[in-house]
Write a structure and sequence with these properties.
Elements (H helix, E strand, L loop, with lengths): L2 H140 L3 H49 L10 E5 L4 H7 L4 H10 L2 E3 L6 E5 L3 H17 L4 H30 L6 H9 L4 E2 L2 E2 H18 L4 H9 L15 H11 L4 H9 L9 H15 L6 H18 L4 E7 L4 E6 L6 H18 L7 E6 L9
């Protein structure tokens, strides 16, 4: 074999060996890449599995929390229902005890009547025997005939019985009077003892907590524009003094004062205090107050057990929460009178539900006596008659102050319960009622002038602010009106110091860009 051929074969062999070597290298790298990919895939699958498990656990925890909240809400409803059932059970037990006591009293009375009947029968037998013996003796001694002796005996017996009956009548009359007075004291004492409600006196000021004294400057505003706007919208007097941490709101109208307190609290929490925002918050708070008044009326009806009232009557009962009589809250007073009247009626064997209704609604006229002419008994009777209440309820409202002659026993019971509630120590104070009456008279006097839209007595009655219609009253007429109102106050009212009359006249122009 020649050299070129040999070299060719050697080259082919060497090339094949090199190719085989590189092929082995390539396959080894491929296997290594495959193993790496599989390892990464397994790692990623493991991570994905753990992520899914965490998400599943988190979703399970959320569902568990939601389920626990639902269970807690259900438990709360069950607890509330249980409390209501316990309360009803207690009331039912009290009624059963009252009925049992009445049954015992009736049984005792029946036994007494039976004993008295037996005694009378025995006495009649004894009297008949005595009369027979007397007749026989008369026949023997006098020798008179039967008719003559009978007439003489009858006259004698009649005289003796007349004296005896008269004495018995006087004795029993005095005894019955003492027993009636004793029983009346026991009934009233038992009713008062069974219902001993707490009572607090209400004042004509409210306080609002502020986070810092810097908030006082924001409430006052630049040159006092914020506080003036707030007082104008709410009709209250805002006192910002050196007392740390509080702002005082003063007004004799408790509804107006509560609206101002809630509105100021909202403004402080919101932080935006300027005239337009003040007006917006006050209007919003007034709407919320209407809903709150309805809720208060419904709660009072539920608490006293008086149902089926007209919606307007419920609203009026809610407004009584913001009316005080000699510093006593009239809504709480009405609830207390309802319970006391019901207890007195049940102890006397009367309709407790009707008595509670009469007592609950007896002072409803105080919620509208500033809107209608007449005292609160007449106003209340007119309102109750208008909204479909029965004659017993209407008469109780009209006659619980002895303005008319009582025609129903429930009127007398309401008057007694009203006196019990009002006469308890600390329940009332006369000075506050006189103070409120003077402020109401001041506002009513100013509202009687033509063109007046609203009136607010502020500064504890030392200032009356009158808002007039700008279309009916111009600037010159406003100045004259201030002088006329001041003269009318001087002529018709008695007051300490002086009263400032401020006329507010404002014209607004509103444009809306769309």
């Amino acid at each position: 074999m020649d050299n070129p051929t040999l070299y060719g074969l050697i080259g082919v062999a060497i090339g094949g060996a090199i190719g085989f070597f590189f092929e082995r290298l390539r396959r080894g790298a491929a296997y290594q890449g495959r193993d790496e990919i599989i390892r990464l895939a397994e790692t990623e699958a493991e991570n994905l599995k753990k992520t899914q498990e965490l998400l599943a656990k988190e979703e399970g925890l959320k569902k568990r929390e939601s389920f626990e909240k639902e269970i807690e809400s259900t438990r709360k409803e069950l607890r509330d229902l249980e409390r209501d059932l316990d309360k009803r059970d207690t009331q039912q037990n009290e009624r059963v005890e009252d009925y049992q006591k009445r049954e015992r009293m009736l049984e005792l009375t029946q036994n007494k009547l039976v004993d008295r009947t037996r005694a009378m029968e025995a006495r009649e037998v004894e009297l008949e025997k005595t009369m027979t013996e007397v007749q026989e003796q008369l026949y023997k001694v006098s020798g008179l005939d039967k008719d003559t002796a009978t007439n003489m005996l009858l006259k004698r017996v009649e005289s003796q019985l007349s004296n005896e009956v008269g004495g018995l009548i006087l004795t029993h009359k005095s005894k019955l009077k003492d027993e009636a007075e004793k029983e009346a004291r026991e009934i009233i004492g038992m009713a008062v003892q069974r219902y001993a409600a707490e009572h607090t006196s209400q004042m004509a000021v409210s306080t609002v907590d502020i986070p810092s004294d810097e908030m006082k400057g924001r409430i006052i505003g630049r040159e006092g524009r914020n506080i003036r706007s707030f007082e104008k919208e709410t009709g209250v007097d805002v006192i910002v003094d050196d007392t740390p941490g509080i702002v005082i709101i003063s007004a004799f109208d408790t509804v107006r004062r509560e609206i101002a307190r809630l509105a100021l609290t909202k403004l402080i929490n919101d932080g935006r205090i300027h005239p337009s925002r003040i007006e917006e918050v006050v209007v919003e708070t007034q709407k919320e107050m209407d809903k709150h008044i309805r809720q208060l009326g419904q709660e009072a009806c539920q608490e006293s057990g008086v149902l089926g009232l007209h919606e307007k009557v419920i609203d009026l009962m809610g407004r009584l929460n913001f009316r005080v009589s000699y510093s006593q809250n009239v809504r709480r007073h009405s609830i207390e009178v309802a319970f006391l009247t019901g207890m007195l009626a049940e102890l006397l064997g009367l309709d407790g539900d009707m008595a509670r209704r009469c007592g609950f609604l007896h002072d409803i006229g105080k919620a509208a006596d500033h809107e209608m002419e007449g005292g609160h008994p007449a106003v209340g009777a007119e309102l109750l008659k208008r909204y479909g209440e029965g004659p017993e309820v209407v008469h109780a409202a009209a006659g619980h102050h002895d303005d008319i002659r009582p025609e129903y026993i429930y009127t007398v019971l309401v008057a007694a319960a009203d006196a019990i509630s009002a006469s308890r120590p600390g329940a009332r104070r006369e000075t506050l009622e006189k103070y409120i009456k003077r402020l109401e008279e001041l506002e009513s006097l100013a509202c009687g002038f033509p063109g007046v839209e609203q009136c607010f007595a502020v500064q504890a009655g030392r200032e009356i602010r009158v808002i007039v219609d700008p279309h009916q009253v111009n600037d010159r007429e406003a100045a004259k009106m201030a002088r006329d109102i001041a003269q009318a106050v001087e002529q018709s009212m008695t007051y300490p110091g002086e009263i400032k009359v401020t006329i507010l006249r404002e014209t607004r122009a509103v444009g809306i860009a769309k």
